[in-house]
Write a structure and sequence with these properties.
Blueprint: E1 2-7, H1 11-31, E2 35-41, E3 47-49, H2 56-64, E4 78-79, H3 83-89, E5 94-97, H4 109-118, E6 122-125, H5 129-145, E7 149-150, H6 161-168, E8 174-180, H7 183-193, H8 198-207, H9 216-219, H10 222-236, E9 246-247, H11 255-263, E10 266-275, E11 278-287, E12 299-306, E13 310-317, H12 321-338
Parallel strand pairs: 1-2, 1-5, 5-6, 6-7, 9-11
Antiparallel strand pairs: 2-3, 3-4, 8-10, 8-12, 10-11, 12-13
Bound molecules: NADP nicotinamide-adenine-dinucleotide phosphate.
């Protein structure tokens, strides 16, 4: 049984917990995989640790009431440990980092990541921040610690972008990855095609929960750049920082631009592109024959340009509760397979 510590119990970590709740019999029967949540830490909603495992139903009941303190008293339950103590002292085999992303410092998650590896725990990330700031340090640390560092969920949620790029295509030479890595901006561009203004489309994206209250990381291109940086590091061992990216968002795209592209059989997309030499995020007017041009609404996609196969395009969700939770599960299954 793989014992898990969930650092952060928001949208994404709850998505994983829900899959474990509903699929555990199937995962055990089909894949011999079983996992148990032993620790959950949040910033303001309390924390719980129980070496013999926490009951997922009860975790949901408690968090829906607003605080993990609502979890019933049971033998062996510890309450109120701080996040660092949870990482260092819990008996978890795997730490799942699902706290908010900070692209400037990666903190406090970056310290959590190093602490997890120091404590001999595998590390599975949904949070992009630490990887954007310190990808190579973390990879080196994980190697030295003899633990796995996995981050499928950070790029295109559970769509197996990292797995396909680094594992399924490992025998190919990949010269370039080009993708639509941000759902909010793609949703806005899609709505503009049907006549909505940029401001209206953005407001609708916010209403649907695609865009944050402060949408700047999405619309200015930095969220896509962060994912592209992680992808470039994983594919090409690239040493780029975010500052090395040329980044332009979609706020300059007018309704007129979108509509006139349409009459030419083209579509504006916010395209993130990485090669071994560099990376960019910018609006590009793509011919409709390009698979990326046909990726609509909040869907994401990436095209790998390879020597043996030519272009290989993966299209799928780039966000969402169970979609991102599934990305975490995929990493846990890899850890399980590696034994
Ligand atoms: N949402 C998506 O579709 C998606 C997709 C891919 C990747 N991601 C990434 O996944 C991560 C989590 O996203 P989310 O949507 O689940 O966010 P969220 O709903 O805001 O949840 C964040 C969780 O982290 C907790 N937290 C914050 N600081 C903490 C700390 N210092 N120690 C322990 N817990 C802490 C929060 O606790 P409180 O509730 O007490 O504040 C909350 O439980 C982010 O980095 C995000 O970029 C999200």
């Amino acid at each position: 049984v793989l014992k898990l510590a969930l650092i952060g119990f928001g949208f994404v970590a709850q998505g994983l917990a829900e899959i474990l709740l509903h699929r555990s019999d199937e995962l055990r029967a089909n894949l011999g995989f079983s996992a148990q949540i032993v620790a959950v830490a949040t910033r303001s909603r309390g924390s719980l640790y129980r070496p013999d495992g926490l009951v997922i139903d009860e975790l949901f009941t408690a968090i829906h009431q607003g605080r993990l303190d609502q979890y019933p008293d049971v033998v062996g339950l510890e309450r109120g440990w701080d996040t660092m103590r949870m990482i260092r002292e819990s008996s978890a085999d795997v730490v799942i980092e699902a706290t908010p992303s900070n692209f400037q410092t990666g903190q406090p998650a970056l310290d959590y990541c190093h602490a997890a590896l120091d404590a001999g725990k595998h590390l599975v990330m949904a949070n992009k921040g630490p990887l954007v700031v310190a990808y190579h340090d973390l990879v080196t640390h994980a190697r030295q610690a003899g633990r796995q560092l996995r981050f499928e969920a950070t790029v295109m949620a559970g769509t197996p972008t990292i797995h396909v790029g680094t594992s399924a295509l490992a025998g190919c030479h990949i010269s370039e990855a080009r993708g639509i890595l941000n759902g909010t901006t793609n949703y806005i561009l899609t709505q503009m095609e049907s006549g909505m203004s940029y401001a209206e489309a953005l407001a609708q994206a916010q209403k649907l929960g695609y865009a944050e209250a402060d949408p700047s990381a999405d619309v200015d291109g930095w969220d896509a750049a962060a994912k592209a940086l992680i992808l470039a590091a994983a594919l090409f061992n690239s040493q780029m920082t975010l500052a090395d990216f040329s980044v332009k968002g979609i706020s300059g795209i007018t309704l007129d631009n979108v509509q006139s592209a349409r009459t030419r059989g083209e579509r504006w997309k916010l395209v993130a592109r990485v090669t071994p030499a560099g990376g960019s995020v910018q609006p590009v007017c793509l011919p409709i024959s390009d698979p990326l041009a046909n990726v609509m609404r909040a869907t994401n996609a990436v095209t790998y340009t390879t020597d043996h196969l030519g272009d290989v395009t993966l299209i799928g969700p780039g966000a969402g509760r169970s979609q991102t939770g599934f990305g975490l599960l995929a990493d846990l299954l890899e850890i399980h397979r590696a034994g």
